[in-house]
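Course assignment 3, question 2. Fill in each field.
Student: A.L.
Task: Predict the tertiary structure for the chain below.
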Amino acid sequence: MNALLEAKRVEYGSDCTLLISHRVPRERRESLLWLGGSLIQAEHFGSIFCYFFTRGLEKDKMSTLLTPGYRLQDAMARTVSKKVTFDFQEHKLANGLDALALYDPSLPVVSLQIHFAAGARNERPGITGISHLFEHMMFRGSSELGPEEFSKIIQANGGHTNAFTTTDNTSYYENLPAGKLELAMHLEAERLENLKITEDNLATERKVVRSERKYRTVNSPFGLIMEELFATAFHIHPYRWPVVGWDQDLRSLTLEDCLEYYRIHYAPNNAVVVIVGEVKPDHAFSLVEKHFGHLSSQPEPAFIHGEELPQRGERRVLYKKVAQSPAVFAGFHIPGIANPDIFPLLLLTSVLSHGRSSRFYRKFVKTGRAVEAEADLGSPPFLTMDPGLLVISVTASPQEDINRLERDLWKEIHLVQSHPVEVAELEKGKKKLRSSYLMSLQTHFYRGIMAGIYRIRAGDFRWINRVDSTYQAVTAQDIMDVARRYLNEDNRSVVRLVPVPPEESQKWGEYE
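Answer field:
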């Protein structure tokens, strides 16, 4: 008998299910989120795998899940038939701080998040990378805590903490037991008010961030190519520099730069606090008032950069570096997160390059002509606040002529501009994007991320309740229209990677 069918179900009261099987593939484990409940934990003991889920799994649903040939996307299409909504409550403090709360008692945990409207978009030449640097500085200690003590306290209380920086925001979060919410809130408010910004801390984190830049960008296959692409496509807007910053700016940042950036951008009126989990909104808001209400607001940060002017013709750059294969990276200017064209563009990228049945994969990768071929602009809520780029890239196989490969790439783009996508392609793309989005919303953490970042980038956290229906409303004509509107030659910037041997590369010096 197939091992998948040798599964046992054990109920622990009415709230938890333990599914025991010799092996359950990842896609079937994820399916349980929709056919039975939320995955709490997965453990394995030798050849035995144990999966713990909230709520009971009905026998017929479990049997369906474990049947060979079961497909997650089909189950998603059948299961998710009603509109997905989350009843976030909103509260604004007198100092300008926004607070959002969503009550969910399904698990005794909570996600606390603080999102600042402080990313690469808010920088200027000379201090690029300061937003990301501050993400590191926030863990270097405060009046009450020593370096890294913040994280140790959260971990000792059963929680997890981290942070991330993007083009448009810097975000901090703690996922922990609901009973420890006030502890986390106190720690966040205390470091926000009393962060230790010293020459020693700056020197330590400057070194760390420069090493991170070298590891993630300079020494990665295409990190420098992506930087060159954005620097070519943007002449005015701060999206032209990377989130990690330019190395020469990281070297020259001063303590005065940091103090001024901290004062303006880490003010309560430039932040959104999000609480999701087993805590009633009224109680959550009272804790926010208690710990953050006394903080002083600051003048709203000025966005000093103008809008990018329309591009008047293709821009093309050759970039020579040590590499195994040539590649082409092209960026097309597209609108920001709140523009209605974004969702047809997301469906377009899905049709072109998501999965083994996508057009790029079948045309270039499956045939052996390319190592990879992709189209990407991000995913909700990680879409740029201001007009950004849709990036199309292709890496040639060793035997492939890069000129011919690029010509055929643009032929594929012409096809989606001149002919509507097939109904099956459109529906498959919707299933993929909707299932990915809806699966992410199973966690308290990602619900908070969606609401908080949409509040920062689009000005409205309620987008969390519109994404799914907006995907569903996209038509084949919409996709063809946006392909014609944005994926044209005059709106295109291209960086061609030209591989060179190490001895030739050395004449330009080290990469920075």
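Instructor remarks: The two ends are 58 Å apart (CA to CA). The longest strand covers residues 388-396.
Grade: pending
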